[in-house]
């Protein structure tokens, strides 16, 4: 592959990329779909790569769904992808607790949606918060003291469309009144495709709010953290040097690929424009870039 930063994918570099790797890791939003709309040529590209014997794995920072819910979304778009091939930041949060021997008698407070709660329950952890706390309000009277469950040992913050002041205070009191309470962020994306039509504030905005109130930085388990790679490598017999991360965001996907030793391909179907990629202030350079995933099909037929 070319060493020059910002090299466009060509017939030659596409061939050498495909020959040099065993697995493609795909970011989802901006590569496979935009919100709920499939991106053109994705089924054809996936079919071609599978026929070539490549392993396909999907790594998303979206914490709103569990792996099971994601596999349903793939199927609804006509793509056959199993739960085992999907790595979400909601799953990453649950696996982080498991790997760190989080005590089962402790509870997890969730600022986030069902995906996080489902992954935590599947991993055997007791959790609360989430959508249920979405309607809670606080009467800010002069002598009101906010109580929280002292058995909370971790707070997980992900995208939460029901984010509110109650949840912020719950998370803040758990973390600031117990120095051992873990503060975990699923991801820090500034925006996300909550709808296909436009971008919306991402989990990073909610993480920033909680982080500001406790004056602490969270442990980030989604991209660009390499945390998920260990699980991926345990699940499949792969080497990172023979993997290619394909994504649309430089500071999550491409950085994740670089942090874990993968080759990187940026596609321009998502949030990064060619001028942002080529801007002098950008210091995250994928190995190659191309307009869309579908280009692989055309270039490999040349
Ligand atoms: N988080 C949320 C809430 C989103 O809606 C999205 C994209 O839609 C993302 C994160 C980014 O997901 P991905 O890593 O698949 O691009
Ligand atoms: Ca993306």
Short précis:
The chain is of the alpha/beta class and 302 residues long. It is built from 11 helices and 16 strands.
Q: What can you see in these coordinates?
A:
The chain has 302 residues and is of the alpha/beta class. The mean pLDDT is 96. A 7-stranded parallel sheet has the order 1-16-15-14-2-5-6, with helices on both faces. A 5-stranded parallel sheet has the order 8-7-9-10-13, with helices on both faces. The protein has helices spanning 11-20, 42-51, 67-76, 89-99, 114-122, 165-177, 203-214, 227-235, 250-259, 274-278, 295-300, and strands at 7-8, 23-26, 33-34, 37-38, 55-60, 86-88, 107-111, 126-129, 152-157, 182-185, 191-192, 200-201, 219-220, 243-247, 263-267, 288-290. It contains 11 helices and 16 strands. Helix content is 35%, strand content 19%. Helix 9 (250-259) links the parallel strand 14 (243-247) and strand 15. The structure holds pyridoxal-5'-phosphate and calcium ion (CA). Calcium ion (CA) binds at residues 27, 29-30, 247-249, 253, 270.
């Amino acid at each position: 592959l070319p060493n020059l930063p910002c090299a466009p994918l060509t017939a030659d570099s596409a061939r050498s990329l495909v020959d040099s790797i065993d697995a493609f890791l795909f970011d989802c939003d901006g590569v496979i779909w935009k919100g709920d709309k499939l991106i053109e040529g994705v089924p054809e590209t996936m079919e071609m790569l599978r026929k070539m014997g490549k392993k396909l794995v999907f790594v998303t920072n979206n914490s709103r769904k569990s792996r099971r819910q994601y596999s349903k979304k793939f199927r609804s778009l006509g793509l056959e992808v199993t739960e085992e091939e999907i790595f979400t930041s909601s799953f990453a949060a649950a696996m982080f607790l498991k790997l760190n021997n989080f005590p089962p008698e402790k509870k997890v407070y969730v600022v986030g949606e069902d995906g996080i709660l489902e992954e935590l329950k599947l991993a055997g952890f007791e959790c609360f918060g989430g959508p249920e706390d979405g309607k809670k309000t606080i009467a800010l009277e002069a002598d009101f003291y906010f109580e929280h469950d002292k058995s909370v040992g971790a707070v997980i913050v992900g995208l939460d469309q029901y984010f509110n002041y109650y949840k912020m205070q719950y998370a803040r009191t758990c973390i600031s009144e117990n120095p051992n309470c873990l503060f975990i962020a699923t991801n820090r994306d500034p925006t996300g495709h909550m709808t296909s039509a436009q971008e919306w504030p991402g989990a990073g905005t909610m993480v920033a709010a909680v982080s500001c109130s406790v004056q602490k930085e969270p442990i980030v388990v989604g991209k660009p953290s390499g945390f998920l790679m260990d699980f991926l490598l345990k699940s499949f017999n792969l080497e990172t040097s023979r993997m290619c991360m394909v994504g649309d965001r430089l500071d999550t996907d491409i950085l994740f690929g670089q942090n874990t030793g993968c080759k990187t391909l940026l596609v321009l179907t998502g949030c990064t424009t060619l001028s942002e990629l080529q801007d002098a202030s950008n210091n995250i350079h994928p190995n190659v870039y191309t307009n869309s995933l579908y280009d692989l099909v055309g270039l490999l037929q040349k």
